[in-house]
Amino acid sequence: MSKQKRINYIHFQVVDSTNTWAKNNGSILDPDLITCITASEQTAGRGRFLKTWVSPKGVNLYATFYFCRPKGKPFLSHLGQLLSISCIKLLKSLGFSPQIKWPNDILLENKKVAGILCETIPQENFVEIILGIGININMEDHHMKGIDQPVTSLFLMSGQYWSMDKILQDLVSFFVEDLAVLENKGF
């Protein structure tokens, strides 16, 4: 297996934010691998502009991809869009009809089901990429009280519970494949 396709997995039962953890711990992660950091619960999940991402325990996917790439690559500015496309492919494979609301929201029937947060940290010869995603999978109505925008989950849209492990594995597969295409052919 090539270096680009090897994935290192780190899972936490509880973490403040998978993105924050990746930012704070990038120096201990292998720069030649993609590391996928997940959590069963986030206590300080966040979206763009430091908005709170509601992250109840055990019902949604909270994941961050951490990896490094050389500085100056033209595709670096498209990584958030790339993860949006990977998420769209995932949701379509599950029978949904998702829409992208640029730059970082995924909608089902005009309600947010996923959000993406892309952060970069320039170093001397490379860029650290922290690419997070939250997908509302088995979240029920009572978890959504107090959220300031229309939201939904795969459970609410389908009436069935979903395997978060399978969804994560499928998302990782789509993302790794899409990243290889982006790096080889551009956006």
Structure, explained:
By secondary structure, the protein is of the alpha+beta class. Helices cover 27% and strands 30% of the residues. The chain has a 7-stranded mixed sheet, sandwiched between helices. Helix 2 (79-93) crosses helix 4. The protein is globular and about 45 Å long. The relative contact order is 0.19. The mean pLDDT is 89.
What's this, in brief?
The chain has 187 residues and is α+β, with helices and mostly antiparallel strands. The chain is built from 4 helices and 7 strands. The mean pLDDT is 89.
Note poorly predicted spans. none
Question: What separation lies between the terminal Cα atoms?
Answer: 24 Å
Instruction: Summarize the amount of helix as a percent range.
Output: 25-40%
How would you state the average pLDDT, rounded?
A: 89
* Number of extended strands: 7
Strand order of the largest sheet: 1-2-3-7-6-5-4
**Computed Rg:** 16 Å
- Tell me the strand percentage band: 25-35%
SS summary, helix count: 4
For this entry, what is the oligomeric state of its chains? Answer: single chain
Global geometry: globular
* Element string (H = helix, E = strand): EHEEHEEEEHH
Q: Structural class, judged by helices and strands? A: alpha+beta
Main beta sheet: 7 strands, mixed
